[in-house]
Write a structure and sequence with these properties.
The chain is α+β, with helices and mostly antiparallel strands. The protein is 50% helix and 16% strand. The protein contains 2 helices and 3 strands, in the order αβββα. Helix 1 runs antiparallel to helix 2. The two termini are 28 Å apart.
């Protein structure tokens, strides 16, 4: 009979899990520092968010400001922020996707993730 029943070395599994956790934390920190933009109205309104989704900047071209039509400006702002957040989600998938997959079935053998 094979000692340990042919099971993976528990110490090795724990080291792999710890490394993946560190890689994930590092990627999350990078996302928090990385900024992505979104725009609406052909660039009249631009929003900048971090890769983790925090709104950092909002730029409004004076041409977009019409005191008689603040509703359109509000719509442009919402659209720009949504576009920036979509770009942030894409960035999250690029940075965290491979790490999250590593925690799944193809990651650490023997762990039921």
């Amino acid at each position: 009979m094979i000692p340990g029943g042919g099971q993976p070395n528990m110490q090795q599994l724990l080291q792999q899990a710890q490394k993946m956790q560190q890689d994930l934390q590092r990627a999350q920190e990078e996302l928090a520092q990385t900024e992505v933009d979104g725009q609406a109205g052909g660039g009249l309104v631009k929003a900048t968010v971090t890769g983790s989704g925090e709104l950092r900047a909002l730029r409004i071209d004076p041409k977009a400001v019409d005191p008689e039509d603040t509703e359109t400006l509000a719509d442009l702002i919402i659209a720009a922020v949504q576009a920036a957040n979509e770009n942030a989600q894409t960035l999250q998938q690029q940075k965290l996707g491979p790490l999250a997959q590593g925690l799944g079935g193809s990651g650490i053998p023997g762990l039921p993730f």
